[in-house]
Amino acid sequence: MLFRDAFKTATRSLTHGKMRSILTMLGIVIGIASVIVLMSIGQSAQNLILGEVQGIGSNLIFVIPGAPSNGKFAAPASAQGIVITSLRERDIDALKREPSISAAAGEVRGQADVVYGNNNVRIGYEGVTEDFFAIRNLDTKEGQPLSNGDIASGNHVVVIGPDLATALFGTAVSPINKTVRLNNVSFRVVGVLSKGGNGPFGVDQGNLVIMPVSVAQKQLLGITYFNDIIVEGDALYDMNFIKSRITFALRQTHGITDPNKDDFDSRTQEDVLSLLGNITSILTLFLAAIASISLLVGGIGIMNIMLVAVTERTKEIGLRKAVGATDGDILEQFLIESILLTLSGGAIGIALGAGVVGIIYLVLTTFFVSLGWVFAFPLSAVALGLVVSTLSGVIFGIYPARQAGKKNPIDALRYE
Amino acid sequence: MIEVHDLKKAYTEEDAPTQALAGVTFRITQGEFVAIMGPSGSGKSTLLHILSFLDRPTGGTYTFLGKSIDEMSDKELARVRNKDMGFVFQAFNLLSRLSVYDNVEIPLLYSGVPPARRRAFIEEAVQSVGLEEKLYTEAGRLSGGQKQRVAIARALVTDPNVIFADEPTGNLDSHSGLQVMEILAALNKKGRTVVLVTHETQTAEFAQRIIRLRDGVIESDAPVRTRAEKIVNLK
To answer: Under an 8 A CB cutoff, do A319 and B106 touch?
Structure first.
């Protein structure tokens, strides 16, 4: 039997029972649409996260304490609750002497209650060294960033996030020159950050408090080391070269001669992006795997209906075999019907998924502007949708089609 | 053309063996019109199924156009059914939602005839049963007699050597039955072999020869009066 004839015969059978065909397809439509929507959300979230990291600033290298991880998936030692005190002021001085490095800033982090009058908010704070604002591209919408003088002198001044400013002072009162208290230490507010929302690494920038590093270290945390150092490389130099210079400089200041005993690790923005990219890809795949359960259910529905169709059309199968159809011809006909069903379902599912993705985008960009949601409709999801729907047609259609092909023509002709 | 020797067919149903054919021997030559008759359970339908390659015997030999059925694979049997055999069933077995054209086309779908050449074959076959004005009518809308004539057109479309008809007038009124038998008789007159299974004597008398079966064996195998005489008598 020519493929063209088999296709025509299958199309005719499907269009004959339109309502049944549509209802049969429904499972696949929902399954493929779910996969498309979840993959798209995953991709959008990935783009959003990676965009945030890229938005931190360019040519950045993050130096963190602890031995270098062999795999990119390993969490930094600090994230595992291990306190490593290897990064110090002298490291920043050494890094700043490197010609390939434009700037370097140390950071410490902590959490505290910030109080103004009767208002009390639990926030995360950062103690920073000079150049921090320049490296991180942070601007203020009110007041000024911390000056190098404030930082060098260890003045009790802070720059606060815009959400925190509203929470503590409301919208009518300017926070500038007001005094707030963190763990009973008083600070004067000198600036309000212009951008709120979630910053890189999940930092709630809207509620952030930034202060000179020495104040945070001595008065709030009681430490003398940094949690990390951010290095801005000179754009003229290759990032890997800069990384090697950082390693060289820090080994010298730390007195390390054996490369296997490094007590610091440096990660370029690319490394971080790659790590986050891997994590979000796994998340996207995980979401798609959940959605594919509905595909499985849809596929079983197809198999069920195809088995019913084979029984209903037993006499037709008998006739076709009597006039010369082989087992293979009958199998081919029913398999094409099944694939047509799932492929059409897949195409409708892709269109439906695209529609839902569009609606989600519109809703999120209209009502949740600060989220900065980005539109992503991965073509890989479309290709996957088409491939998976075709495969489900084959997988769930092969059994009914084989049953049809194996029918004995005499029994089939006698079937009532 | 058709040669069977000591043909047997045994079924096992509910652990009890049934001998549907218990050793049947005869020959049918090209251009013959043979009727197979017998009471219910005599084995006539079983014999027709084996002769038309829809079933295989469990004993004896069957040679069709010089080749034994035992030497042929299921695929070859399907090919022979398509090229050399035409089928007319009691229940017509048309696909009621398809047009006359599409029903008659079905055997051509499996014959390898290119789509462009099919129309001529289909129109010729439909014309030969006098239904050219119904070519695009849905088969389900035709009368019983017309349905059986479409079935004959479908049997003819591949220009087969032999037409097997299983109780072709069984579901028809006498007028339509007569029309159908006249068409089969006319086809035979043009040289086509016709093998007919019937339990109606009037229908069987269109044949040149009647093989009577009883309990799976041949009771008699004899020629009948000339067809012209019989048609005159019927009318």
So the answer is: yes
- The answer to whether A324 contacts B78, with C-beta atoms less than 8 Å apart, is yes
- For B91, other C-beta atoms within 10 Å of its C-beta total 17
Residues A337-365 have pLDDT tens digits of 999 989 999 999 999 999 999 999 888 88
pLDDT at residue A97 in the model: 92
**Contact between chains at A16 and B49 (C-beta distance less than 8 A):** no
Which tokens is B162 given?
Answer: 């032999």
What are the chain A neighbours of B151 within 8 Å (beta carbons)? none
Torsion sign, CA atoms B218, B224, B227, B229: negative
pLDDT score for B47 = 94
The answer to whether A252 and A95 have CB atoms below 8 angstroms apart is: no
Cβ distance A345 to A32 under 8 Å?
A: yes
Domains of chain B from N-terminus onward = 2-234 (3.40.50.300)
ipTM, 2 decimals?
0.89
What is the token pair recorded at A71? 């795999």
DSSP B88-108: E-TT----TTSBHHHHHHHHH
Instruction: Dump pLDDT digits (tens) for A383-395.
Output: 888 888 888 888 8
The Cα–Cα gap between A135 and A81 comes to 27
Residue A48, classified by CB atoms within 10 Å of its CB into exposed (0-12), middle (13-18) or buried (19+), is: middle
Asked whether the beta carbons of A280 and A45 are under 8 A apart, the reply is yes
